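DATA SHEET
Item: assembly model
Revision: 1
Owner: S.N.
Input lines:
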Amino acid sequence: MEKKQRESWGSRMGFIMAAAGSAVGLGNIWRFPYMAGSNGGSAFIIIYLVFALVIGISVMVGEFAIGRRTQLAAVGAYKSINKNWTFAGVLGVLSAFFIMGFYPVVGGWASAYILKSFTGLLSNPAAIGDVFGAFITSSVEPVVWMLIFLAANILIVAKGIAGGIEKAGKILMPTLFALLILIAIRSITLPGAGAGLEFLFKPDFSEVTGQTFLAALGQAFFSLSLGMGCMMTYGSYLNKSENLPNNALIVTLLDTSVALLAGIAIFPALFAFGMEPAQGAGLVFVVVPQIFAEMGSLGVVFSAIFFIALTVAALTSSVSLLEVVVAYLMDQRGWARVKAVYTAGGIMVVTGILSSLSMGTLSGFKLLGVGIFDFFDILTDKIFLAIGGMLLAIFIGWFVKREDLEDELTNGGTVKFGLFNIWYALMKFVIPLAVLVVAVMGIISIEQTGLMIFGLGVIVVLALFSKKL
Ligand code: PFF
C-alpha cells in the first residue's frame, strides 16, 4: 500500500498558533491562578517560572525534535527509535485520556458562563460565589455544557489538522490576549489592588514545602502541554525547515506570559474585593464576573467576551489532547481519522459525565480517596506528566543518538542552535535528576498515598506489558 503523505501545518504562523493554542488554555487562566492562590502566591510563581523556563522549554525542544524526526505521534515515535520505550508513549496517550476526563467539564463551565453573563449573573455580585457552587454541583446543566464542549472538540478534530485546529487558534488566541490585558488593567486600578500585587510578586519562602515544588512542576508541564507526547505529535506535522528551538522559545514565552497576565488580572481584584486567595477551582469563575459586575451593561458584554475567549482557549487545548489519542489510533492501529475521533470521543463522553457528576450527585463516590474529577486531575498533574517528562529526557539523553538530535535541531546543519551542548546536558543529567527529586519530595508528602501508589503502579505495568501496543 502506498504511504499517504502526512498532513502538515499550513504555515509557520499556523503551527505556532496551534502549539501555543495547545499550551494556553484552562491551565493558564483557570488553573494557574488557583494553584498560585492555594500554594502561597509568589514563591510558587517563582518556582513555577524556573521550571517552565528551564525544564519546560528543554522538554519542549526534545518533544518537537523526536516528533519531527520520526514523523510519528507519541507512541510510534518512541517505538520507532527503541521498542522498549513504547510504554512512555502509551503513558502519554493514557494521560491525554485522563486529562480529557476532567478538562471538558471545566470547558463546559466556561461555555455556560458566556450565557450566564447575559442572564443576570452580574446583577447580584454578592451571590456570584453561591451561583457557581450551585451550578457545578447540579446534575443536568453542567453535564449538558460539558457535552456541548466535547462535541465541538470532536467536530474540530474530525476535520483534521490544518482545517480545524489551525483556523480556530489563529483567530481566537489574539482575542484572548487582548482581553486579559484589559481585565488586568481594570484589576490593578481598583482601590486596594496593591495587596494582590504584593501577593503575586513579593515572595515568602517560609511556606514552601515538597508539595509546592511538585505542584509547580506539574503546573509547568500541564500548562506547556508537555510530558504526554502532545508537542511530539504536533512536531510530527511540522515542516523540516522550521527552527525547533526558536519555536519552543516562542511558545513557552507566550504561555508563561498568559499565565502571569491571568494572575495579574485576578489577584489585585481578589484582594480589592476582600476575598480569599485559596478558594480553589472556582476562583476565575467568581472573581472575573465580580470585576465586571460593577461596570453595568458594558460589564455584561466584557464578561461574555471573556468567557468566549476562555472557552476557545480551552478548546484549542482540548483538541490537542484528543488529537494525541486520535493520532495514536491512526498511526499505530491504522484507523481512519473519523472512526478514531468518534470512538475516543465516545469514551470521553462517559468519563466527562462521571467527572461532572462527581461535583454533586456523585460526590460521595470516591476512587482511592478522591472524587472522579480529582482522580483524573491529580493523577495526571501530580504523577503522569512529570514522570512522562522525565522519561522523555532520559530517552533523549541516553537512547537517541546525539548526532541525530543535533542534526534534527539544526535542520541538518542549516540553522544554528548555539545552546545544543547545554540543552543536551540538561536532558541527560539535570532534568531526570531534578524531576526525580521533586517527584520523590512531593510524592512522599502527598495526602493521597493510595492514589500515588496506583499511579506509579500503572506506569510500571505499562513498562512491563506495553511492547505489543
Ligand atoms: N496546556 C493546556 C492548558 O494549559 O490548559 C492543557 C494541556 C493540553 C495539557 C495538552 C496537556 C496537553 F497535552
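QC remark: The chain has a mean pLDDT of 91.
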